[in-house]
Amino acid sequence: MKLLFNILFIFIVGFSAFAVSGKEYIEKVRANYENIESIHLIMNYKLFRGHEGKELVQEFESLFYKNGKQTYRKINEIEIVSSNKVEININHTDKYITLTKGKEISPIDVNVDASLKFCENVLISSKNKNTLVTLVIKDKVDLPYTKLVIEIDKNYWIQEIAMYYNSKINFSESYFEQDYDFPKLVVEYRDFKKKIKNKNEMLKIEDVISFSKKDTKASLNDNYKNYQLVDLRNIK
To answer: Is the dihedral of CA 48, 5, 77, 233 positive or negative?
Structure first.
């Protein structure tokens, strides 16, 4: 599981400089997710060995909710809750909670704006009734991929994102052996709904942390009293 987590948390970067048709596809996709007030979504993460390989090495499921300005994401034993003011990251394995300034969290696991710079070519093709947008990344740029493939349905909702990494990793399960190959990470989007089934399922910031009147001091609520709080907001 750690291998997949190491891959997952470096892949939120971007690309760009598409051909016009490719850029239009991406902009319509982004507009869909940015303009919606409520989202219920499940994402399946699958790590494969080799760019063309079919060997599934690891997989896990992620839950994503959005309700107004607040978002919630659960990945195994990690829960992330974000608003326009603060973000909390709960690690249930190690029992600590980090508190940072808020930032927008999108279910699109690629930073489109940051990415509009390092794509040298875009290919548009069909897959059943969906559209595949393939972004080919320039050589010798500071990005972890050589290629990004986004599958989009006719209404511009993402069905799948495949990321082809440009550096080999060690797939060996033994400390005494090395087994390097290029990883491919596939994110499948499913069970998408424009309304949360049950809003009580969505953890809220106030369920975890209480703030002083000026928001300068934060303290954990009783349900999390056994956790360590790390406040990284740099409030003076």
So the answer is: negative
Phi, psi of 36 (to 5 degrees): -90, 140
Distance from the Cα of residue 203 to its chain's centroid:
18
Q: Residues 172, 154: contact at Cβ < 8 Å?
A: no
Could you write out the DSSP letters of every residue in the chain?
-HHHHHHHTT---------HHHHHHHHHHHHHHHH-SEEEEEEEEEEEESSS---EEEEEEEEEEEETTEEEEEETTEEEEE-SSEEEEEETTTTEEEEEE-----SS-S-HHHHTTSEEEEEEEEETTEEEEEEEEPTT-S-SEEEEEEEE-TTS-EEEEEEEESS-EE--SSTT---EE-EEEEEEEEEEESS-S-GGGS--HHHHEEE-TTS--EEE-GGGTTSEEEE-S---
236 residues of the chain, pLDDT tens digit each: 455 555 554 443 333 333 446 677 778 887 888 778 888 999 999 999 999 988 899 998 999 898 888 899 998 899 999 998 899 999 999 999 999 998 767 776 555 555 556 778 888 898 999 999 888 888 877 778 888 898 999 998 999 999 899 899 999 888 899 999 999 999 999 988 888 777 777 899 999 999 987 767 899 999 999 999 999 987 65
Taking the C-alpha atoms of residue 142 and residue 124, their distance in angstroms, rounded to an integer, is 25
* Structure tokens given for 228: 């360590």
